[in-house]
Amino acid sequence: MTWLKVESFRSKSNPKNSYWVSIHIETQTLGCNCKAWIFKKAGKPRHCKHLDLVSPDTIRSILNLAPNSEEYNTRVIEFIEPDTSDIQHSKQWWMERKIEFI
Predict the structure, then answer these.
(1) What is the pLDDT of residues 76-87, one digit of tens each?
(2) Which residues contact 21 (CB under 8 A, 6 or more apart)?
(3) Contact, 95 vs 30, CB < 8 A?
(4) For the segment 25-48, what is each residue's pLDDT rounded down to a tens digit?
(5) Considering its fold, how many domains does the chain have in total?
(6) In the structure, how many helices (H) and strands (E) does the chain have?
């Protein structure tokens, strides 16, 4: 799985924390590491306010980066899947929003 960092946002409630919006290259879905994204409510689509703050132009520029270029490599996220042996949730646990406008 190749995820690239798109943009960082500082938490308003706790300025020591930052949240990253990232894009999964193969599926072109966005994800975020904030609590709203990770712990979505049952029956609701996975979403957070940070996704709305990223411009389509920024996403396009990330998707157009040449693989293994310097900028591409600085944005790569080492994604480690959570241990789901004791809980029930999807292996795609934080990347369900398909980008429609690209």
Answers:
(1) 876 555 454 544
(2) 5, 6, 7, 8, 9, 30, 31, 32, 50, 51, 53, 54
(3) yes
(4) 888 889 999 988 888 888 888 889
(5) 1
(6) 4, 5
